[in-house]
Amino acid sequence: MNELPQQLVNGLLLGSMYGLVAIGYTMVYGIVQLINFAHGEIFMTGAFGALSVYLWVLPNGTSMWIALPLMLLGAIIVAVLVAIGAERFAYRPLRGGPRLAPLITAIGLSLALQQAVWAWYPDAKSARTFPQIAGGPFEIGSVTIQTGDIFLFCAAPISMAILAYFVMKTRTGRGMQATAQDPDTAKLMGVNTDRIIVVAFALGATFAAVGSVAYGLKYGEIQFRMGFILGLKAFTAAVLGGIGNIYGAMIGGIVLGVAETLATAYISDIPGMHQFGSQSWANVWAFVLLILVLLFRPQGLLGERVADRA
User: Fold this and answer.
1) Contact residues for 286 (Cβ-Cβ < 8 A; gap 6+)
2) Which of 18, 51, 62, 304 has the CB geometry, 3.0–4.6 Å to 237, for a possible disulfide?
3) Lowest model confidence (mean pLDDT) among 39-43, 167-171, 199-203
4) Could you tell me the pTM of the whole model?
């Protein structure tokens, strides 16, 4: 029990990262009812975009306090360009077609992005070291916080505040709400739904890029397969919070992160359950939680926000 505060903080950090990526899933699904299973790879390309800025754009020896904003900008630019390209060339031609076609396309795009990074980036077959912020760790009572985690502590609430303001207070944000509710009526009211969909993809990619930089700072390395499992967990978080519910995506991510961390830390203390508390079982517990939610509350913790377009 003395470790509980530390485990809760670890779960909060992990869940915040899941939530940042889950926002992209839930925004796109809420507007076009598409599960973009390539979103995990968009997250991955953001991480490599940040690393590319550090290695190939900035002078050697640049302080991380100076490099980090530029790396974040590079991650966002790369992720947004990939997301907009995917929407324009992979998903838009299939809009209005059978629902299975975009799903298969998303899976194919996911594999294509993995192989593209593997082929383009030197030594991408192995994990690449991600630059770290010097200093730390910091201790607050019984809780230890790594220097890299400070970025996530700051980025997650700031990102959510910006997103809330954008959706609720800007004209484009209101257009997104109208398109999600009824795209045909939104068109009649003068809303450019194609532009709104592009904005949704771009915003989702932006938050995924922020999450990818946080991932690199937290774990100290990135690799071209990193987006697959994390993308599935982020999708789980989106379903857990309520698909189409932006705030539910972050809540679902936090619940998932805390549950996964506590299960990994404490399941091994139960007699006969030692093997189920290992780190290799962390992925399993995430999907066990998803199954329970789908069985007992399929609409998610905060409820779905998806219009019926039947």
Assistant:
1) 233, 236, 256, 259, 260
2) 18
3) 167-171
4) 0.92
- 8 A C-beta contact, residue 160 and residue 167: no
Determine contact, residues 256/286, Cβ cutoff 8 Å. yes
Query: Long-range contacts for 123-126 (Cβ within 8 Å, ≥24 apart)?
Result: 124/48, 124/223, 124/224, 125/224, 126/223
Nearest C-alpha neighbor of 47 from the set 24, 19, 20, 72: 72
225 in Cβ contact with 31 (< 8 Å): no
Peptide bond into 122 cis (omega under 30): no
- What is the bridge-based pairing of β-strands 138-140 and 143-145? antiparallel
- Let me know: does 180 contact 305? Beta carbons within 8 Å: yes
Q: What angle do helix axes 39-52 and 64-86 make, rounded to 10 degrees?
A: 140
**Dihedral sign (CA 167, 229, 130, 150):** positive
Query: Which structure tokens are listed for 70?
Result: 């530029």
* CB contact set of 298 (below 8 Å; sequence gap of 6+): none
The residue type at 244: G
DSSP reduced 3-state for 202: helix
User: Considering only CA atoms, which of 27, 37, 71, 42 is closest in space to residue 164?
Assistant: 27
Interhelix angle for 147-169 vs 4-32, to 10°?
30
In the block, residue with structure tokens 């937290």:
218
**Least confident interval from 82-96, 118-132, 228-242:** 118-132
pLDDT(125) > 80? no
In the chain, the amino acid numbered 297 is: R
- Beta partners for 139? 144
The confidence score (pLDDT) of residue 310 equals 47
Dist CA 103 CA 231 (whole Å): 15
Cα–Cα distance, 114 to 230 (Å, whole number):
14
CA gap 230, 167 in Å, rounded: 26
For residues 19 and 152, the answer to whether their CB atoms sit within 8 Å is no
